[in-house]
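Human: I'm a chemist; would you kindly supply sequence and C-alpha cells for a protein?

Assistant:
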Amino acid sequence: MTYCVGLRMDRGLVFMSDTRTNAGVDNISKFRKMFTWVKDDRVITLLTAGNLATTQALVSLLDERAKAPAERSPTILEAPSMFQVARIVGETLREIISQASGTGQRADSTFSATVILGGQIDDTEPRLFMIYPEGNFLEASDDTPFFQIGETKYGRPILIRAYDPSMTFEDAIKLLLVSFDSTIKANLSVGMPLDLQVYERDSLRVTRQLRINREDPYFQTISQGWGDALKQAFMSLPAFEFPPADGPPDLGH
C-alpha cells in the first residue's frame, strides 16, 4: 500500500508521499512514488499509488514519449494546459492497465493504480487532479482542495480539521507530517522515508524538495509532540459520569 497527498494552497502546491511497497509481510521494499518533469514553461508532478508495475510503466511511458514525441499527439511537455496533461496521463494509465490485464474485471483490479497530478504551465493557475484507473479524473476546487491516494483514512481527519489554503508552506508541511505520522502508526503498509516537494506559484521550478527519514529531528519532534498533545487534550475533557440510579440495577431479566 502507500499514502500520498497533494495540497492546493494559495501560494502554490505541496506534495508528500511515502516510499514503502509490500507484497506480504516478508517482502517489503522502498520505491519512490513522486515524479517531476520541469521545462521552461512548466512544472508537472505525479504521485502514484497502486500496482507497482503499472505505476512504473506509466512513468516510464510518459517519460519516453516526452523525450521522443510522436506527430500524432502532444506529450505532457507539449500540452497547452494542465487539463490536457491530465487527459494524457489518464489515457496512458488506461492504456497500460488494458494491455496488462487482458480481459476481465478481476484482472483490471489486479493492475489498478491511481495518480495525483499537479503543476503549472506558463502563466495559468496551478492545478491539481486525481486520476482514476479508468482514465477519468477530478480537479481540486475550493470545496475539495486536497487529494489523498492509497491508505487515506488514518491521516484524513487532521487534514479536514486543520487545513487552510492560506497557511504557510511551513505549516502545511507540519500538517502533512502529522497526517503521515498518524497513518504510519496505524498501518504497517505505509512507511518512511517520506518524499516532500513544494511548488511556489508562478516560479516554474521546484521550490523545495527533500527526503525525510525516520531519524529526522523535526519529524521526531512532531511525532512525539502530537502524541503528547492528544493525550493532554483527552485528559482536559470532562470525565464521563453515570446517571444517578433510580432503583435497583437492571440485570436484563
About this structure: The chain has one domain: 3-235.
